[in-house]
Amino acid sequence: MDLATLYEALGVPEEAGPAELLFAARQQHYTLPYLVLSAVARHGVEMSDAARGELDRARRRAERYESILAEVSAQVPVRPVKGPLLARYYPDGLLRPQGDLDLLVDNERDLWQVVRLLLADEPLYLGVSVLGAPTRHVVVTMTWTPEDPLLDPELRVEVATAALTGDYRGVPIRPALPDDVLVANLLALGEERFQRPFHARDAIDTHVLGQAQPQLSTAQLVAAVEEYRLAPEVRELVAFTAERVPPGALSGLGEALEAPAARELERRAAHPGPARPTGEVTAAVADGSPLYGMPLRRVAGRTGWDGVRTHLFGDNALLLTPVGDYLLVTDEIVDQERYDAALRELELDRLPEETP
User: CB of 315 within 8 A of CB of 154?
Assistant: First the structure.
């Protein structure tokens, strides 16, 4: 991959020049300027002090994520998802456009050990979400101030006990990823479609994966995608990429997934799963629909805790964690009365002492 590939991927004529390419990158995804600036520098294009400073900060940002991964993995079994794994497929000198660092762990005990390690760096925000039933999964999001708070996005690390969370309906949670790194990356890219439409960064990532030689045949790739219930999404991803840049070794995958994608869509239509509750917190706790924790307070001293605990009160629920307490919600906006009731409940000293 080179500068010419980026012009193709971002839909910018080469004659428009690197300034127009960088402008298009900023419009399409906040991390894409990192890649464009690194490609411009690699190509020997003269850069201003401001552009060079932005690139240097982006490199230090990537190094910070690598440092976090190295520190955590030296003490807890973790597996990165996308991010650093995708970066390995990029040519030397090119920065893979990485917004955050996603870490996968096998269980809650390891998750909270990772969180405690990262708390030493005093995050600005620590959010917790829960989903899944009867097996509960936990996702923790932590953020830090970037090097330049006015110009750069926040640093963010997400630690989860589930690799792929599905669509909360017909596509279930899949806790683990396959060992093959290329396949794991492809599946994680396809999974993004449940959250948003594909954009240029997804095409670039897929293009870079396609330049590698897969260890599996097309038939084996299809089988892996089918197993993970992602045939429609991966087929769309390959087609989306092909409209912008060559998918390389993945070119034949889109056609090979045509029939599996149709079967998967039929399966989802026949087995849509439970409807997601609207505001029904206690129902969501029972059926495993996603719930988000509104921070109430940070806590210290729960060194013996290695999992979250749910405390129901009325139609609401508190999530008590090893590092803080949260009000579980289904929506972004919570009225003041409900928030105040949660704080009062925390003060009643009748919270559970055992993990359910």
Answer: no
